[in-house]
Amino acid sequence: MMIIDKYFQLEKYGLQIRLVNEEDAEYIVSLRTDLRLGKFLNSTKNDVENQKKWIRDYKRREEIGLDYYFIYLHKGQRIGVNRIYNIHGKTATSGSWICSNDLPYELPLLTVMIVREIFFDVLGLEIDLFDIRKNNKKVIKMHLLLGSHHIYENEIDVFHYITKNDYIINKAKFLKYLDLN
Asked: FRET pair for 105, CA 20 to 30 Å: which of 81, 115, 146, 166?
């Protein structure tokens, strides 16, 4: 597996992607504490200093290739974040996905496409193991459209996986759905 450089930047599908830094803490807290947006996430304290400390701790994990936290920008404005974490061999988890309110529908979907491209093409990972809150029906449907497989569920979450091959097979169909093919 490749380790992403701390200066990583990518431009894809009209979005700019970079790694999160401490200056993003207030934005992240605003997303995660928004009642509508944070409905399907682990709760977060409305504490920017605490988020900055979390980011400093995360940066140590980033340096050794254990965790990557991405921020997405559209026309210079931050629109969302997601992560690749629990990296072990050729498997990892993509998650912590949240985007700003009132975006055109395709922008949040593109962030999911991009994190998978980073996951499979940049990092060389092969299996994404992830969970979604059971009540988050739209996100479950989206991941199924992208080729994910249901593993099991508990009272709170539904667990899925997607392989690089699943993603490749379904990518063109998904981009066509977004009218980007």
From this structure: 166
